[in-house]
Automatic annotation (TrEMBL):
This is 3'(2'),5'-bisphosphate nucleotidase CysQ. Its cofactor is Mg(2+). One of its GO terms (molecular function) is metal ion binding. Keywords: Magnesium, Metal-binding. The keyword Metal-binding applies. Mg(2+) 1 binds at residues 70, 88, 91, 207. GO terms for biological process: 3'-phosphoadenosine 5'-phosphosulfate metabolic process; sulfate assimilation. Residues 134-162 are annotated as: Disordered. Residues 141-155 have a biased composition (Low complexity). Mg(2+) 2 binds at residue 90. SUPFAM superfamilies: Carbohydrate phosphatase.
Length: 262
């Protein structure tokens, strides 16, 4: 990410991302505690109410910025502005509707000129918010600190691990760590619960913008599976693959996914 683009995000932008993610997390915790028996009703309410909260706050506090939300109607207007907030109001809707599962998240990211310069990922069930603001203020320990030994832990989908994860597991002898939402898997690397998250098979920009912003702020590697930079606010928000890794494991993981599958 160009340093001049990173510098365009203000301290207030970093703080706003963290604040909004925390507010949405509080709403979703309260909703989950309401005792709604039908999990589909709970999931739909979670998606809708979290989106409405985030969209209203951004409209009030950043009226000149555009918004791309998984739960909102897309508009070509966002392609003509430099600053776009990319949000996933409830990442891991399936897990949100399952009692006692913690692996769901809220994503809030600010993208400027295509780069995720500020962001926050809330893990509401754990009462944690990881953000670029926290990284800058050293409120949380750097995830990339310290040498690593032994085989890496690999965050994988609990329901449908993709071919990239299988290649990394086979090539590096990685230990799979099955988890739910994309944000929770990415944050497993930030939090030191895994060393690699390799995804293939399809995602959208809202699935990774905030996790990538946070991962980069904490000194981790984040790229496409071919090593290319991740860019956002494209006309088509489909972004099919992703690698987030501890720096010591980034090159081995990239080499592993370039091998032809058996």
């Amino acid at each position: 990410m160009p340093a001049e683009v990173r510098a365009l995000a203000s301290d207030a932008d970093h703080q706003l991302a963290a604040e909004l993610a925390a507010h949405s997390a509080e709403l979703l915790r309260a909703l989950r505690a309401c005792g709604i028996d039908d999990p589909d009703v709970l999931r739909k309410q979670g998606d809708r109410r979290s989106h409405e909260l985030l969209a209203a706050e951004l409209a009030a506090r950043r009226p000149a910025d555009a918004v791309l939300s998984e739960e909102g109607k897309d508009s070509a207007q966002r392609l003509g502005v430099r600053r776009v907030w990319i949000i996933d109001p409830l990442d891991g809707t399936r897990e949100f509707g399952e009692p006692d599962r913690p692996d769901w998240a809220v994503h809030v990211a600010l993208v400027i000129d295509g780069f995720p310069v500020a962001g926050a990922v809330a893990l509401p069930a754990l009462h944690e918010v990881w953000s670029t603001a926290g990284a800058a203020s050293h409120d949380q320990p750097p995830a990339a600190a310290g040498p690593l030994t032994g085989p890496p832990r690999l965050a994988v989908s609990r329901t449908r691990p993709g071919p990239a994860a299988a290649q990394v597991q086979q090539a590096l002898g990685a230990e799979p760590v099955p988890l739910g939402s994309a944000g929770f898997k990415a944050l497993a690397v930030v939090r030191g619960a895994a060393e690699i998250y390799a995804h293939s098979g399809g995602q959208y920009e809202w699935d990774s913008a905030a996790p990538v912003a946070v991962a980069l702020a904490y000194g981790l590697h984040a790229s496409r599976l071919d090593g290319a930079p991740l860019t956002y606010n494209n006309p088509d928000p489909y972004l099919p693959d992703l690698l987030i890794a501890h720096p010591d494991w980034a090159r081995p993981a990239l080499d592993a996914v370039r091998l032809p599958p058996c």
